[in-house]
Amino acid sequence: MKLKWHVIIVLVLATSATNLLAQDVHRQQIAQLRQQLAEAQQQGNEKAVLRLWSQAKSLLGDQAGVPELPDEFRPVPKTVEPLALDECRKGAALYLRQIQGKKWWKIGLDPTKTEHLPREVANVIVGGLAINRAALGDQQQWLTVAKEAGDYLLWTQQQGGAGVFPFPHYLGGRGKAFESATRMFQQAEKAGTLDKMIRNGWVIDDHGNGGLQFDNGLCGVAILALYETTKDDRYLQSVKAAADWAVHQPVVPNWNYNSFSVYLLAKAARATDDHRYLESAKQKARLGVYPGQLTDGPYKGRWADPHNARPNYHYIIVRGIASLIASMDESDPDRTIAISSLRLALQARNPEFVQKGMMSKDAALEALLSVKTEPKLRIPQLESCGTNEAIGVLERAVTAEYRSGRLPLSPGVWGRFLEYEKSKLK
After folding, report:
1. Between 212-230 and 118-134, two packed helices, what is the crossing angle to 10 degrees?
2. For the chain, what is the mean pLDDT?
3. What are phi and psi of 74, to 5 degrees?
4. Looking at residues 181-194, what average pLDDT do you find?
5. Domain 70-424 has CATH 3.30.70
6. d(Cα 259, Cα 281) in Å, to the nearest integer?
């Protein structure tokens, strides 16, 4: 009996070692394909990008489209009365007090001691301007808050001196953004290139990682909204500088990073009629957004890699594609693939809100409101994608949470939501 158990233990250990070796080989193959993909993207070789990512999807096998963390679906009340006008006004006032009480952005602060992100300031601008448009009270105060936040972002952009809205060189910050940045700093320090990445305490170069596209895209869009409200040319010049930086950034294997630049460039093209921005947005989508999407199988419409298969990143990409379609003429040859991609993406995730519950809130609601309220997206191909139904679920969830005494969304999305609720009361 002892001999038999000994044999069994040896076999189990051998099997485990074989599995670990196979997993290691698999990871190496994925990493190698990712490097080749990055090179093909930088060369603008669309055929090679499609071929390489097809190989990567084959390696992922039945895990293609499966998120790196399991989806968590939260129950949503079946019936909730929409917000009344008085509730919208109180919700706006509540957020104004919160923002004024927590304001940290200040021209002249030390970025090496700032555990805050530029995207937070962009969020305040977008939400404040939405509430200002909705005329829910304190309009001048909201505009003042948005302009102060915008002027802070312009200062950071000037401090960086490279056009990009830069990232603070803060070490040891909490959260995924700072953790990713810290890894990037460590790698640059080993390579002896860290000094070239930093200017006045601000990170202005991500060495091809693509991470700076995140904040640059959101800040650029926020400043554009500020320009459209104020017509202050400083803001328009700032947007152009951020868009010019984005044009020259390499496409990277992380699809959602690229979508931030698509989002900014498409909106900048629409506002300025600069054809360079639209062409760059379309190319970045062809090389760095569409190829990663599954077009068949049980997870059709999701992005195949485990990271971008997550609901939040899914809807971040949806927002970028929606912005691109809204910036294209009906005769644009790229419009067909963009609409097809958006349709697949909406059909992939929207029904889950009704069937299973809420698995994404801020990102999904922002993206879906953009789809619903954009006149150029009211097209037959996007009907029957479950957008109205998904928004309805999110609306009930957010409204119920607000009435329970919690602040349900980030300032930007809360402002957009209140603007949407107010529009339905007319």
Report:
1. 30
2. 93
3. -105, 135
4. 86
5. no
6. 9
Q: Which of 72-76, 172-176, 307-311 has the lowest mean pLDDT?
A: 172-176
The reported pLDDT for the residue numbered 21 is 47
Judged on CB neighbours under 10 Å (0-12, 13-18, 19+), 369 is: buried
Query: How do beta strands 198-199 and 202-203 pair?
Result: antiparallel
Length of the chain: 426
What is 224-276 written as a DSSP string? HHHHHHH--HHHHHHHHHHHHHHHTSPP-S-HHHHHHHHHHHHHHHHHH--HH
Q: Could you tell me the two tokens for 192?
A: 């002896």
Q: What's residue 15's pLDDT?
A: 52
Question: Tokens 């805050």 label which residue?
Answer: 116
Spatial contact of 172 and 182, defined as CB atoms under 8 Å apart: yes
> Across-strand partners of 303?
293
Of residues 208, 191, 201, the one with CA closest to residue 249: 208
**10, pLDDT greater than 50:** no
Residue 185 structure tokens:
């700093």
CA 209 to chain centre: 16
The tens digit of pLDDT for each residue in 48-79 reads 999 999 999 999 999 999 999 999 999 999 99
Question: Which stretch of 54-58, 161-165, 338-342 has the lowest confidence by average pLDDT?
Answer: 54-58
Q: What share of the chain is helix, strand, coil (3-state, %, to 5)?
A: 70, 0, 30
- Domain ranges in the chain are 1-63, 70-424
In degrees, rounded to 5, the angle at the alpha carbon of residue 310 between the alpha carbons of residues 380 and 402 is: 80
Q: Which two tokens stand for residue 368?
A: 């879906």
Report pTM.
0.93
Compute φ and ψ for 202, nearest 5 degrees: -115, 140
Task: Say whether pLDDT at 214 is over 50.
Answer: yes
CA distance 136 to 114: 32
The helix (run of H) or strand (run of E) holding residue 364 is helix 362-373
